[in-house]
Amino acid sequence: MEFQSCFPVWGNLSDVQQNHILDSLISREIKAGTVIHNGSADCTGLLLVRSGQLRVYILSEEGREITIYRLFDRDICLFSASCIMRSIQFDITIEAEKDTCLWVIPAETYQQIMAESAPLSNFTNEVMAARFSEVMWLIEQIMWKSMDKRIAAFLLEESAIEGTDRLAITHETIAKHLGTHREVVTRILRYLQSEGMIKLSRGVVEITSREKLTVIGNT
Amino acid sequence: MEFQSCFPVWGNLSDVQQNHILDSLISREIKAGTVIHNGSADCTGLLLVRSGQLRVYILSEEGREITIYRLFDRDICLFSASCIMRSIQFDITIEAEKDTCLWVIPAETYQQIMAESAPLSNFTNEVMAARFSEVMWLIEQIMWKSMDKRIAAFLLEESAIEGTDRLAITHETIAKHLGTHREVVTRILRYLQSEGMIKLSRGVVEITSREKLTVIGNT
Q1: Alpha helices, H only, chain A
Q2: d(CA B25, CA B2)
Q3: CA distances (Å), B116 to each of B59, B78, B122, in order?
Q4: Cα B59–B60–B64 angle (5° rounding)?
Q5: Residue A140 has pLDDT above 80, yes or no
Q6: Given A87, A122, A137, which is nearest B90 (Cβ)?
Q7: Do A114 and B122 touch (CB under 8 A)?
Q8: Which of A54, A88, A182, B151 is the most exposed place for a label (fewest CB within 10 A)?
């Protein structure tokens, strides 16, 4: 898979702009568990995921976490290049959830081309709007949805990502995704188990009734 | 105050683009309390606030509200023209908090010029990034800050906006801004009163110790 075929507005850039990107493009391979971007101190550049999975999250001063969104094949991470826009005033952390291959377009290159290219700038608008939509969805979840429903929905999402009903995931990890405490997750998972929706064993959550879980997760 | 002097990238648009905007520009005067944009059904256009104050909020299915951000003189509202980007997949409601004068650039006009103008598209990116930053700030508040601190911070913010320590605001309105229940607000306001930070009377919250309130609101 080539960069050119993964980058959506490639055909709308001039030869000079294309060469500028290709000349500065960096390929990186990252092991699962690695933090690749950490707050506003970094301006890593624009990330384009070739394969793998990234988690974008925020950290509280006390070290609590909540997942903002996740990135999969061909997704683009804009906020790892927050220095390209002065109005980006927040810190995110990015971690590889799986072994991940990605391309990095250095922030300076991207910024220079975006300043002169309406297609690249409009593409950037669409990427940011898509992330904005995910964040607004998250606010609605946090505000209006109880934690049992959020956990049910999260387990179904994980199952869809992993393609299995048997999820190797700890209660602590679920808590970090949803911005809550491990104890809360454990209590709710036990309730879901008592209702016959899941089965818990060490480090594993197995979905035993997708139907019942969906009823909870989708309301 | 003229539109041209309020619209930041005016000087970077061509004569044709400038005339296109001026020909389709609409001036509106809106009474306090009026809802001027309601969910995705509307594509009102881009709003530029000439004077006044707008509140942008989301609504739950049960009718609960939370303020996402507020717009003041010379601020621009992008999401009232959500049809200009297909990736904007969320609904907001916009209400005038005070009598407001604004200009509306029809969505179609804005979209046409943005498609060809890198300056306008980059400006749109900056506006969206600024709103994104406000929304990320809101998530941090909701996730990591207790309601007494959020109410203290809100009262200080209101006081700064209104230029007075005597705020004509109901408990219900505070609850809608912060996405909580009136009963919760009443309980916390009484606590703040018992600590000598505010004084409550019918429809009024008066700040009596800005120092003490700031200690709570800023932690």
Answers
A1: 3-6, 15-24, 107-116, 118-144, 147-162, 171-178, 182-194, 210-217
A2: 12
A3: 35, 18, 11
A4: 75
A5: yes
A6: A137
A7: yes
A8: A182
